[in-house]
């Protein structure tokens, strides 16, 4: 498979789904009660964009249903910053993904439902054997649902290819979500399905080109 550029999903591809569901989301939920008292202008600005009466209940509901809401995703990025900066959170990026990102001579871009800020934090604070590893210098750019659109729409992948300045056919997109892979393929990108422990089962695996370790690239 020929490609010049790599576009990576995060959850279920470069790190376990359990990190998002059992560490990031609970950390965020712990802060929901105090959110309305926050002095951070960005938090207040984001809260005001939820056009609902009970903001806290709305946020809890979105998280419980894992809704990829653009305002929620931005808010989570701001809150997680405290967790990463205080050392309470480090990101368990798979060792093979770290090695690939560090050693490949192809440009690596990220596309996640998590906000660009949340993505940059995750790659700034990658769990290492003694201290956190900062992978940001190895990553050429970040895309999210605010910059590019939802991950299940082909248009989003065309937007990203245009922004990178690359023919869609030259981009390999890797994700654990078959709806995302199908949207990327329709836009002309190449794709691989990430197989990682704890990922959701896929009905017909034979329909996809799979990858379980980045050393296979
Ligand atoms: C950027 S870390 C937070 C992950 C997140 O909030 C999320 O919704 C994960 O979605 P992905 O597109 O990376 O599978
Ligand atoms: Mg994913």
From TrEMBL:
GO terms for biological process: L-methionine salvage from methylthioadenosine. It is found in: Cytoplasm; Nucleus. It is an enzyme of class 3 (hydrolase). Binds 1 Mg(2+) ion per subunit. Pathway: Amino-acid biosynthesis; L-methionine biosynthesis via salvage pathway; L-methionine from S-methyl-5-thio-alpha-D-ribose 1-phosphate: step 4/6; Amino-acid biosynthesis; L-methionine biosynthesis via salvage pathway; L-methionine from S-methyl-5-thio-alpha-D-ribose 1-phosphate: step 3/6. It comes from the Eukaryota. The keyword Cytoplasm applies. One of its GO terms (molecular function) is acireductone synthase activity. Its EC number is 3.1.3.77. Keywords: Amino-acid biosynthesis, Cytoplasm, Hydrolase, Magnesium, Metal-binding, Methionine biosynthesis, Nucleus. One of its GO terms (cellular component) is nucleus. Its cofactor is Mg(2+). It catalyses: 5-methylsulfanyl-2,3-dioxopentyl phosphate + H2O = 1,2-dihydroxy-5-(methylsulfanyl)pent-1-en-3-one + phosphate. Substrate binds at residues 112-113, 151. Its main location: cytoplasm. Mg(2+) binds at residues 9, 11, 176. Belongs to the HAD-like hydrolase superfamily. MasA/MtnC family. Monomer. PANTHER family: ENOLASE-PHOSPHATASE E1 (PTHR20371:SF1). NCBIfam families: enolase-ppase, HAD-SF-IA-v1. Bifunctional enzyme that catalyzes the enolization of 2,3-diketo-5-methylthiopentyl-1-phosphate (DK-MTP-1-P) into the intermediate 2-hydroxy-3-keto-5-methylthiopentenyl-1-phosphate (HK-MTPenyl-1-P), which is then dephosphorylated to form the acireductone 1,2-dihydroxy-3-keto-5-methylthiopentene (DHK-MTPene). This is Enolase-phosphatase E1. It comes from Lachancea nothofagi CBS 11611. The gene is UTR4.
